[in-house]
Amino acid sequence: MASDHVFKVLFLVQSAAFTLFIIHYSQMTTVVLKPVGKLNDEKHCHCKPTGTREVFNTSAYVHQNGELLMPIRGQLSNCTLADIKKRPGVVMLTTANLAFVDIALNMLESVKRIGVCVNTTVIAEDQKAYDLLLKYAKGDPAIYVQKTNSGEMDEIEPSRRLGSHYYGIMNKRQAYILTLLEQGLEVLFSDSDTFWFRDPFPYFQGDFDISIRSFSKTRIISKTHFCSGFIYLKPTNATIQFVRTWVELLDNNKKKGKFPTDQSVMNGLLTADKPVHVNITILDEDLFPWGSTFFDPSWQKQNHSTVVMHAANIPGHPAKLSKFKEFGMWLVNVTTSSNR
Ligand SMILES: *[C@@H]1O[C@H](CO)[C@@H](O)[C@H](O)[C@H]1NC(C)=O
Ligand SMILES: *[C@@H]1O[C@H](CO)[C@@H](O)[C@H](O)[C@H]1NC(C)=O
Ligand SMILES: *[C@@H]1O[C@H](CO)[C@@H](O)[C@H](O)[C@H]1NC(C)=O
Ligand SMILES: *[C@@H]1O[C@H](CO)[C@@H](O)[C@H](O)[C@H]1NC(C)=O
Ligand SMILES: *[C@@H]1O[C@H](CO)[C@@H](O)[C@H](O)[C@H]1NC(C)=O
Ligand SMILES: *[C@@H]1O[C@H](CO)[C@@H](O)[C@H](O)[C@H]1NC(C)=O
Ligand SMILES: *[C@@H]1O[C@H](CO)[C@@H](O)[C@H](O)[C@H]1NC(C)=O
């Protein structure tokens, strides 16, 4: 109870702008009083109240410069603001509609368990997904839940056969990525159906614009295709021009009532080396396997030091869920899909 309250106070302190906090520090009460409880002997004694107030002295937790001495760890991330600041200029982005909130929470739990802290944005594609994600992410300094800014999508998992809706969701990711790149941030876009075993960030070092998984081992960019569901982008001029064109092409198609996959449009640009040449680094397929490879019993018997598994080619929510459960990779106690 007491710690609960302190938490709330600290959260308030932290979520308020720090500048404001510093300006008003002297006026700000450092002692927080709970309402007086029911007085012990109200009816008989009209003298002074004997009811006690629980007193929480926030100055025991907050330094003069506004730094928290007992920093808040997010419930979803187990990270503090200071942890996030240790990885400046990097944002992890994922998206989920209501049907995939559980899958997204499972991914975040896998990230939490390996102790990776990164400034994370989760884009909720509908109001219910937003409300639910917000409930879990509340007060978490590492996880920012944002509601889609480009039209809500269905809450249920759209069938791939109903092209437009399914690809409608997938095609909005690029606009989010572009916004972040334009702020000079490096972006890791991760589909929600990934499971993290180890910290992937050391694999995103070096001289490249985009780091991504390919469908084949060949290093000749024009001869292979890439998967857009787990992609690391640096905010270089080349990347920004590339993603801008990617977004434009998707928008133009949409206006014509066409919904090619974001991935096919991306691959078309890469194959044609347009609008500019981007330097690609290909992620190791043994370290970043896809579902069909990873869940293969013969692959499981081998020693692969998997970094991130992406259940990309395990189609549909029910199949993903059952694979995660079968392999002991279902870490959360929530199911949101109504589409079984
Ligand atoms: C609150 O805590 C600070 C630092 O521990 C202490 O100096 C101050 O006297 C305390 N105030 C009250 C009202 O207990
Ligand atoms: C949260 O992080 C702290 C500090 O790294 C660690 O000691 C603790 O075990 C973690 N808790 C969970 C639930 O992961
Ligand atoms: C986290 O990322 C957002 C962009 O999504 C940015 O505005 C914010 O400043 C970042 N926070 C930190 C602590 O780096
Ligand atoms: C991309 O590769 C070219 C040729 O190898 C090189 O000149 C250029 O500096 C690279 N750009 C980046 C952003 O790494
Ligand atoms: C990147 O683009 C900006 C603005 O378009 C330009 O001023 C700058 O010279 C470019 N940098 C490189 C390395 O091409
Ligand atoms: C796989 O790893 C385990 C534990 O690290 C080791 O005991 C075993 O010999 C390895 N097997 C192969 C085939 O490398
Ligand atoms: C999941 O939550 C329900 C309700 O809070 C609880 O009864 C159940 O024991 C939980 N299961 C696990 C595996 O944590």
Automatic annotation (TrEMBL):
GO terms for molecular function: glycosyltransferase activity. Residues 119-322 form the Nucleotide-diphospho-sugar transferase domain. One of its GO terms (cellular component) is Golgi apparatus. Keywords: Membrane, Transmembrane, Transmembrane helix. SUPFAM superfamilies: Nucleotide-diphospho-sugar transferases. InterPro entries: Nucl-diP-sugar_transferase, Nucleotide-diphossugar_trans, UDP-D-xylose:L-fucose_XylT. Belongs to the glycosyltransferase 77 family. PANTHER family: UDP-D-XYLOSE:L-FUCOSE ALPHA-1,3-D-XYLOSYLTRANSFERASE-RELATED. This is Nucleotide-diphospho-sugar transferase domain-containing protein. The lineage of its organism: Eukaryota, Metazoa, Echinodermata, Eleutherozoa, Asterozoa.
